[in-house]
Amino acid sequence: MASSTSTSAGHCPAHWVVWALVGYWTLQAVVALQSVLMAFAAACFFAAILEAPVRALGRRGLPRTSAVALLATAFVCSAIALTWAFAKPIADQVMVVAHDAPRYGAALEAKAQQVSDAVPWLRAQVEGIEIGKAVSAVGRQALPSVGRASASFLSSLVLLFLTAVVTLYIAAAPRQLVRGMVMLAAPSRRRLVLRIVFGVVRQIETWARATLWLMVLIGVVCGLGLWAMGVRSPLLFGILAGIGEGIPTVGPIFSAIPPILVTLVDDPGKALWVGVLYLVVQQVEQQVFVPRIMSSALKLHPASVLFFVAIMGALMGPVGLLFATPLCASVKVVYDEVRLDAARRRMAETTGSRA
User: Fold this and answer.
1) What are the angstrom distances between the C-alpha of 326 and each of 209, 291, 307?
2) SS3 category, 296
3) CA distances to 181, 239, 353 from 338, in Å
4) What's the confidence (pLDDT) of residue 202?
5) Which of 154, 108, 111 is closest to 133 using CA atoms?
6) Taking residues 105-128, what's their average pLDDT?
7) Distance CA 192, CA 341 (A)
8) Which whole-number Å values give the CA distances from 171 to 45, 54, 163, in the listed order?
9) I want to staple 105 with a disulfide (CB 3.0 to 4.6 A). Which of 135, 139, 154, 280 is the partner?
10) Average confidence score pLDDT of the chain
């Protein structure tokens, strides 16, 4: 009896060492294959977005493979047309803003000096902060950063191509992938896994449809508003406003800062109206458009979304911010389904024991 106890006790450290080594090497493999895993995850995400239009085309009698091919062709043609129409104007406006960054910095520093001279106590608070150098540095670093980014352009292009190909394969034949995911679970848990998969797909579809409409709406309204007010580079700032709408909570705030700073240099009064424009647009969006366009099925707490924004931003940078909300919604689906499944099992056990 004692020998068996000592044997089992002696095997425990070795057991934990094996599991620790497995966990360590698994982590190393995940880190090494991080780009490939992210590409596959992104492909599943985009395939879920394509599911609704593919089903709509299928209801019209189009085979699934043909529907996916038609959507892919339409997307490529649209991307080429948009690039042909807007690439040069956007690039020109970016170069103008980067070229004028030193002048913006000097003007902002002069205005800050005027304010600090008029308010003595404020001078002590901002003393040592060189706004001009900071803003000028942004302009000086803009072009070199473009050069550094282009160095990894080839690898990014290959990864993007891989993501696109995997997306099309998953969208064309999702049943095999779903069946494989379900079969990995225990027989008693397969219905749960299936409900989770369908729930996650529905949440991603809801988020993608609502976010796309909101991004287009906010980008167009802000761009037209800036153009009507005579602000420089309205197309660039309108696109930034649309992109910012896809980043929850912090995106709209950050997208409003560049046009306000640029306008502040030329006309402080107009900069105030630019701020009012963004404030009004965001309030109308939150009070009117979000309840109507964004389905209530998401029901996400702002604190949960901010948590996922921080996590995804740290893991994937700016691109990760765009995936924060759908990932949060997906985790909520998993949590709700697991909780409901546990409640159903408890109810079944209670009913069985009473019987």
Assistant:
1) 12, 17, 13
2) coil
3) 16, 40, 23
4) 85
5) 108
6) 60
7) 7
8) 10, 8, 12
9) 135
10) 75
- How many C-beta neighbours within 10 Å does residue 263 have? 23
At 14, list the tokens.
């070795």
Asked if residue 74 belongs to a domain, the reply is no
Residue type, 133: K
Helix (H) or strand (E) holding 313: helix 302-316
| Cα 263 to Cα 97: distance, rounded to the nearest angstrom | 11
Residue position matching structure tokens 């449809």: 209
Do 255 and 315 contact (CB within 8 A), yes or no? no
Choose among 299, 286, 291: nearest CA to 251.
Answer: 286
Residue 201: give the domain boundaries. Answer: 192-251+271-345
Whether residue 104 lies inside any domain: the answer is no
Residue carrying structure tokens 């080839």: 154
* pLDDT, tens only, 235-268: 888 888 888 887 766 778 888 888 888 787 777 7
Name the nearest CA neighbour of 277 among 235, 211, 228.
228
pLDDT for 151 equals 47
C-beta separation of 312 from 321 below 8 A: yes
Q: What are 248's two structure tokens?
A: 């929850």
Residue 153, domain member (yes or no): no
Q: How many domains does the chain have?
A: 1
Helices (H), 173-267: 174-184, 190-228, 234-245, 251-266
